[in-house]
Amino acid sequence: METTMTTGMRRPGTRVRLWRCYLLDTRCELLRLLREPMYIIPTLLFPALFYVMFGLLLGGRGSGGAARYLLATYGVFGAMGAGLFGFAVTLAIDRERGFFALRRALPAPPSAWLVARLLIAMLFTLVIVLELAALAVAFGGVTLTAAQWALLWTVSVLGALPFCAIGLWLGSLASANAAPAWVNLLFLPMAFLSGLWLPLSMLPDVFARLAPMWPAWHLAQIALGATGQSGSTPLWLHLLVLAVVTVACCVLALRRLARAV
Amino acid sequence: MTHTDGHGQRRWPGVAAVAALVAVLGAAVAMAGPARTTPAVSASPAPADGTFAIRDVRIFDGAAVIERGTVLVRDGLVQAVGTDVAVPRDIAVVDGAGRTLLPGLIDAHVHAWGDAQADLLRFGVTTALDMHGMADRLPALRAQRESTAATAQADLWAAGYAITAPGGHGTQYGFPVPTVDADTDIPAFIAARVAEGGDFIKLIVEDMRGYDAARRLPTLDAAQVRAVVDAAHAHERIAVAHVSTQASAREVLAAGIDGFVHVADDAAADAAFVADAVRRDVFVVPTLSVIASVAGADAGRRLADDPSLSPWLTPEQRDGLAARMPMAARPQRLADAIDSVRRLHAAGVTILAGSDAPNAGTAQGVSLHGELALLVQAGLTPQQALVAATSAPAARFGITDRGRIAPGLRADLVLVDGNPLDDITATRRIDTVWKNGRRVERTQPVPAAAAGAVPDDSRISDFESGLDARFGSWAPTTDQMAGGASTVAHARIDGGAHGSAGALSVTGEIRPGFAFPWSGVIFFPAAQAMQPADLSTRSELVFRVRGDGRRYSALVFSGTSPTAMPAMQAFEAGDNWTEVRLPLAGFAGADLSRVRGIAWTAGQPDGAFAFALDDVALR
Predict the structure, then answer these.
(1) Does one domain contain both B464 and B394?
(2) Closest residue to B9, CB basis, from A202, A229, A259
């Protein structure tokens, strides 16, 4: 806030640019997370670790197909983690601590915390996909054109948004203690049953057929499409599902948050 | 009030959101579905689970040619072959345009150990017939060839131990072989071979008279041959014979043999023999590849240089193809053998393709392609040569599940570029190999490390201040790496030759343990131990030595393989410093363009030794 604190005299009606508020909020949220290495390290390292194990070491025996397939799907896995954990758990904790009551009293834009956390989730996703890209190129022998890389990263980063919405809704429902459990209950099965770790052809048929009910499956199909491994389902269906999930979860979450004290 | 719930919010947005969620996810499940998933993902597992189709390909099915057809493979077996085979929508399809599909090739005469089965498969030879080896692996070989699991090895049918006389041909390969002498109960002997798991009986009639007038090996006589053949037939096994002279071929033919696994190459087959062979319906595996090697024809080296084969050779295969038989070249043998094949084939005798790999001048897998070319040179058409390597050996040896591309048979297939029915050498341009319906991962072997260049300096080490060398490095070497017990300690000591500051002292003890004990130091010329370096511009190894009067050896390790035997020259280490000059040409058989190490070692007799080196140089 430019002219205020330093001069000590505040003229009524001073306007502060909105983006500076968002930036400040983002910085604060980022600092909050960075001070929790127990959150940062698993979120940022696990996708890369699993990729090395399953994509490079175990999958490397065959053609480079595994490294390329898992590059796309582990990016989605990273986006999921960043969105779900970043939103659900922090939101549940904040709710219980009365953070939102405090915020209502602050002269901060009501949406700033939401925007800040969205930006951070997307930032974490970006870091994860860049890690995977480095591993894939260095050790997995994956080559993509610059356009494909750009598309893959954009898809993954923007793809964090639906999961932020789901996380938002979960965080609005669960208590601080229960939130991590609920997130894991959703996160791990969804990742597995969406074919993020193994191709769906290796799962029993019933799971393979139910895969489209998971938003992660749709995002993974878009990401695979960006790397040239698309399936036969049209793109608009994936986008529609993700969009509806985002909007619906946001609506439900914000309704609950509006009630909360 | 009726529109809002207990929290004061309108009810409908919440309901609508939940409804939208359920609707869209349900629709997605109904509409989409990985049942139609990415061919890219299912293409990698699909060839792995043995179901695929090859379309628009020229097919040689083991007997006839279909110019443009489709082959459908399901679960590792061929399901359909023809011009109008319907291909289901969801399976992986291989485009065969411009290519030819052959049944997996069969080499009718090999001796397989070590990497042989993997080498065979890499060159499209999916089955081979082993003509002499240890019998304890026979049950495992049977299990392997009956399995339909994915594999990285060719299947083998095997004779087990070949039938030979005590001290005869076949007993010189370093493993004990049960033999047949005058007192042997031949029916019981053959029963034992069959019980061990032999798929057929191979007997050896060879006294070396065709090769070397002086040396004679003991071998089976006519009565024994007859008894072996009868006993084999009693056990419903075919009997095949190794022969190398016309006389032994006639004798064995009269005894009722079912086939020859060499063509007698001391002379061309005469009309009487040919007529008899036709009458008795025997088959012949000419093994022209090994006869070409005996003839000194250099066919192996030419195969190794073929650009479609060369990248796929391991260093060991390359060494095998370049090796020469330890006898004077006899080009007439190849000419006679080709002549014999021409006559036998013209008369209608069944010819089978076999290489007798890995004898000198041959290598597993690759030599069968050379054999096909030699058969064509001897008068077979390319199609007849391909029959000789596919359906004919399968028919003659009672192999029913492969050798042809037909419904119900194994999907052991080779896809090659071009048309081998026009140009037999097209078999070498292998695109894909399938074994048990699964695509074989062909990886090009890591080429032998390129020989590094060394600096021009002729001096290597003078040990003035330490063990450093102008290039390369020093290390101890003993037979402990081969299971022996000798020891060595090496260090720089003060007081070198000609009053120089330092020398390399090597002390140790030769202890019994390994058959050829050694202990000493080794110098590696390249940056890493046992990597090859090019020393072809040097002519002399010069060094000063002083020691305890024992006789020592200088060894040169070289060649494409790090484990090859070294070449050696001896020197004495007396009480006074003496300069020793060993011409590099004196290391017989060393490849100076690929020197991996030079060692100074003590050998027999057992006991302590001590010597010192100084002023080592390669001039």
Answers:
(1) no
(2) A259
